[in-house]
Amino acid sequence: MNLAFFASLLVFILVLHHNLNKADRTQTKEEDAYWENELSANRTRKKDLNDLVYIDFHAEPFYPVNLLDAKSCPEFFQKNPEVPNILSRFLFLEKQKIVNLTQYSNTDLKYKYGVANLTALTEYDTNYNELITLLHNYGNILEKEGYTAQALTVLEYAVSIGTDISNTYMLCGKIYKENNNTERLTWLKKEAENISTSRKESIVRKLQEFGPCND
What is the pTM of this model? Predict the structure, then answer.
């Protein structure tokens, strides 16, 4: 019995050792391939940015004075002190270059546009990520205050520029479901299918929980 136990233990150790060595070799190959790609990308010359799709963002349509009636604005600002900062960032961003590059890694960007453009491209993408985050936060505030139509104005704009923030889609879907708006729910699901990042499948799957809609 003891002999059988030790034999089994020896087999287990040998298999474990083999698997660990195999994993180490795989990891080494992956690391070598990564650094080879990086070196190659770093040698890519600067290229034109003519094919970039810039987002033409304007802050004014999202001012509370343009979304709410004038009498509601003072109370809205009082109850939500973070709103002025959101609007301030909107004003800043409308003067910046904004591009959705979330589907690309830094290596991809260097290959595509050259390493000399990486700093600018990173800035454009950072601006984009800040914008979709601000839009979600702002839409969420509006919805919590009972301004659902106004919230949708903000959230739908975020969807239209390709946001991959899951909660933006979920909040839109919730409002559509509550209002039996199957047409807009259909639109939302189709927009989710166009998401260019790895979050697409998760978002599409979550939207199915709102039930079937008209195709």
Answer: 0.80
